[in-house]
Structure formats: C-alpha cells, structure tokens
Amino acid sequence: MTTTTIARAWSLRRTDGLVLGFTDHDGRLVFDGVTFRPDRGLAARALVQGTGLSVDNSEAIGALSDGAITERDLMAGRWDGAQLRLWEVDWTDVAQRRLVFRGSLGEVSRAKGAFRAELRGLSEALNAPQGRVYHPRCSARLGDTSCKIDLSAPSLSLQMPVGEMEEGRLFRFATFPAFDANWFEHGRLEVLSGAAEGLSGAIKNDSARPGGGRLIELWSALGLLPAPGDQIRLTAGCDKDGRSCRLKFGNFLNFRGFPDLPPEDWLIAPQAARHG
C-alpha cells in the first residue's frame, strides 16, 4: 500500500485582521505564524486554475460554528473579500510546502447550518470593466476622490437610534430632524452598534410623514436585525443628475457626467431633423 504525507492547508484573513487556519489533515499544522486546525469544519473542492486571464475558481464548504466562521459574521459581511491562501504541505515537515492558490472569498451562501463560499483568484480583478463611460449622469460615487463631497457634514449625515422597524427593511421614525423629503433616497443606512453592527443597506425610498415622522425603506432587508435603540447612520443620496449636483450639493464643478450629450434618438434621427 502507498501512503502520502501531503495535506492541504488554507488561511483566511479578514479585512479587520482576524486570521483563521484550516487543514484537511487530522492534526494541527503550524507555519507562517498561523495554526491550521482540523476541527473547524472547512473543506475545499477541486481547484480549477487557468492560464492567461482565465478566472481561477473553486469553492470552500464548511460548517457554521461559534469557534470559527459564524452565521452572524457571515450575515454581517465580516468575511466579504477575505484574503485566502491555499498550500499543499508535507505534514511530516511543514517547511516542505507549495502555495497553490491565492485569492479572496466571493459570493457566500448558507443553508442547513453550513456555508458555501466562492473562491476568486487574483485574475478576477482583471475582468472588471476599465475606462470611463460617457453618459449624461455622473460616474463618481458620492464622497469619493472624484466627487470630493465631505459626507461627514451635518447636512449630509445623520446619526440616530432605531425606532420602529419592520422585516429589517422598513424603518419608521415618529420624529425626525428637518431634512427635505427624499433627502436620503439613493443613500445608505449603516448600523453602528448592537448585534448588526457593520451592516449597511441602500436606501430605496425616503418619505416624510404627517406630524414630522419619516419612513426609510431599504432595497433589501439587513441580514441581521438591529434592536430598538441601536445607533444607525443615514447618509444623503445622489441620483447622479447634474441638477441635483448643482442644487442639492453645490458641487457642479466636480460633476463627472456629460449633461449636454445628445440622446441616442438624436444619433439615429435624419440629418434634417437634427438641425431643426
């Protein structure tokens, strides 16, 4: 009978610096300052690696446990974009090892007490669209280096406790500071404290209510429900329109769209119609 001393070991590093190590060997392995444990319920499917710009892909499958990757952390997005490295290692001499995969966690799904995570190779970023799109609406993101708006300004950001909430998607406030209706539409809601700390959602609707109340509706429900009294932050939204940039933010000098660009109908219209 032929035996092998090769095992697989992989480490995950979250964006907050937490590092976990896993191995399919039946004992602990230690190298690079990381302890790779066999009792954390993680396994990887066969790795597919391509040449050139082909996307490497695989999956990590594991059990949700309090000692390693928890459902709460997954739902809070704390593992989004975690950096992953996978080695083949001789468990009798861990100095004899080979790095076979380096990338990050992609889409994560969960069911029946387990999770499944897509592994994305380093070439994944090269498939992102490059260059600038010429479009009437702004290409910048509110508050980024192109936009230059300071989102910490009192007129653009509001911190307050959670009041009445429905399904983690509808937030009702009996009283609300004097912001115009729809001020936070297209903005973001971030949870700052409690079990759901770190979660955020895009705001779909911002509706004023009689008596000074407010209804904030998210596009999708938060993965974990904030409790009444937990602190949230609302950030003003931008609809990417030049008029909004000028009147709402007073920032038209940094507008990154092309509001005078002719529409598609103009391009296909007969020449006589173009000149009136």
Question: How would you explain this protein's 3D organization?
Answer:
InterPro entries: Phage_phiJL001_Gp84 (IPR011928), Phage_phiJL001_Gp84_C (IPR018964). This is DUF2163 domain-containing protein. Residues 182-265 form the Bacteriophage phiJL001 Gp84 C-terminal domain. The protein contains four helices and 16 strands. The protein has 276 residues and is mostly beta strands. The chain has two domains: 6-125, Roll (Pnp Oxidase, Chain A); 157-235, Thrombin, subunit H, CATH 2.40.10. A hairpin with a 2-residue loop joins strand 3 and strand 4 (34-37). The N and C termini lie far apart (88 Å). 23% of the residues are buried.
Task: Give keywords.
Phage_phiJL001_Gp84_C, Thrombin, subunit H, 2 domains, Pnp Oxidase, Chain A, single chain, mainly beta, seven-stranded antiparallel β-sheet, Phage_phiJL001_Gp84, 276 residues, nine-stranded mixed β-sheet
The largest beta-sheet arranges its strands as 3-4-2-1-7-8-9-6-5
**N-end to C-end Cα span:** 88 Å
- The overall number of domains is 2
Shape: globular
CATH topology of the largest domain: Pnp Oxidase, Chain A
Question: What series of H and E elements makes up the topology?
Answer: EEEEEEHEEEEEEEEEEHHH
Per DSSP E runs of 2 or more residues, the count of β-strands stands at: 16
Architecture of the largest domain in CATH?
Roll
Helix content: under 10%
Low-confidence stretches: 46-55
Main pleated-sheet profile: 9 strands, mixed
Number of helical segments with 4 or more residues = 4
**CATH classification, class level of the largest domain:** Mainly Beta
Instruction: Give the amount of beta strand, in percent.
Output: 35-45%
Secondary-structure content class: mainly beta
Radius of gyration: 25 Å
Mean pLDDT: 83
